[in-house]
Amino acid sequence: xxxxxxxxxxxxxxxxxxxxxxxxxxxxxxxxxxxxxxxxxxxxxxxxxxxxxxxxxxxxxxxxxxxxxxxxxxxxxxxxxxxxxxxxxxxxxxxxxxxxxxxxxxxxxxxxxxxxxxxxxxxxxxxxxxxxxxxxxxxxxxxxxxxxxxxxxxxxxxxxxxxxxxxxxxxxxxxxxxxxxxxxxxxxxxxx
Length: 192
What we know:
InterPro entries: Calcineurin-like_PHP, Metallo-depent_PP-like
GO molecular function, one term: hydrolase activity
Structural class: alpha/beta
Pfam family, one: Metallophos
Strand content: 15-25%
Order of helices and strands: HEHEHEHEEHEEEEH
Distance between the termini: 34 Å
Protein name: Metallophosphoesterase
Organism: Thermococcus piezophilus
CATH architecture: 4-Layer Sandwich
Radius of gyration: 15 Å
CATH superfamily: Metallo-dependent phosphatases
Number of domains: 1
Number of helices: 6
């Protein structure tokens, strides 16, 4: 898949793709409209790990619109197929807009509880859907989403796609495509 990228984003992705380090990508609160973009990132960068911190089909808002379960299931199917096409290790944290039973169906062994800490090549990642899930955990990086809050050593997957290189622990953020926040249901950036 060929994606057109702004110059800065293109340079960051070229840097990441050329790196011999282990590559971890963190995403959160992804509307279906962002799936092709995410797939392009995974292809271009050749990731080793993908961490999704919840609300896998954020445009559906399943918590508030349970009648959209069928559409939600279709979105999960698309995402599972996409992730399955790559060699990356996947971690999925359930969010408030997710259905745990359906997540188990599509992502079974890749599911982790909010507040879990995983070790990836000697680096500790605290995983949660909200900042409250990770703020008090002992970890090198605290990955979460859900809103626009920033915390110490935190990487918020709503603000952009985060990349961590290991063992250097260098981090990079790439913006989601224009319109992603609108698709999430945000009319404007709250709290900014």
